[in-house]
Amino acid sequence: MSIATKTGDDGTTALLFRKRVSKTHPRVMTYGRVDELSSALGLCRAFSQDEVTKAAILQIQQQLIHFMGELATDDEDQERYQEKYGKDAITMDMVDRFSDLVKEKEETVTFRGWTFAGETVADAFFDQARTTCRRAERGVVALKESGATIRPELIQYLNRLADLLWLWGREHA
């Protein structure tokens, strides 16, 4: 079976549950930004020397699959999505875990004033991931402002993740 279905050759793509939309549809643009974030996190994972951080990043990448699934589901199919995949949805427990990690890192990571990416390759990748996360966060907010139903946990998840990525960047500098 080929991954090249050619169904997108007309500039459309399928949301979950088969609804076809333009590749520039706000949902597609938004879950695309989250996909970019997952790829950026892959670079962080590849260049981090800390096994605990690497394991945490892999777990985040797995969570982002479900995050994208929720974004790739039109409002009228959200109930169906939750019935089928809700057990893996982004939760407040995940947001709280990020908050806890941020507090832990704030106790050990030192920084003074503004920082610049590039002290190390890993630091640069963490800062790139952070800015990619903020772009994804803005996309989710814009999708919500356009009238889509977005659970608050999704925005909070990205907001806390960006904070954590900033601290991981300082830790890897």
UniProtKB/TrEMBL annotation:
GO biological process: cobalamin biosynthetic process
Gene Ontology molecular function, alphabetical: ATP binding; corrinoid adenosyltransferase activity
Pfam families, A to Z: Cob_adeno_trans
Keyword Lyase carried by entry: no
UniProt EC number: 2.5.1.17
Coiled-coil intervals: none
Reactions the enzyme catalyzes: 2 cob(II)alamin + reduced [electron-transfer flavoprotein] + 2 ATP = 2 adenosylcob(III)alamin + 2 triphosphate + oxidized [electron-transfer flavoprotein] + 3 H(+); 2 cob(II)yrinate a,c diamide + reduced [electron-transfer flavoprotein] + 2 ATP = 2 adenosylcob(III)yrinate a,c-diamide + 2 triphosphate + oxidized [electron-transfer flavoprotein] + 3 H(+)
Pathway of action: Cofactor biosynthesis; adenosylcobalamin biosynthesis; adenosylcobalamin from cob(II)yrinate a,c-diamide: step 2/7
Matching InterPro entries: CblAdoTrfase-like, CblAdoTrfase-like_sf, PduO-typ
Ranges where the Cobalamin adenosyltransferase-like domain occurs: 3-170
Domain of life: Bacteria
Gene3D superfamilies registered for this protein in UniProt: Cobalamin adenosyltransferase-like
Alphabetized UniProt keyword annotations: ATP-binding, Cobalamin biosynthesis, Nucleotide-binding, Transferase
Family label: Belongs to the Cob(I)alamin adenosyltransferase family.
The name this protein goes by in its record: Corrinoid adenosyltransferase
Organism from which the protein derives: Coraliomargarita akajimensis (strain DSM 45221 / IAM 15411 / JCM 23193 / KCTC 12865 / 04OKA010-24)
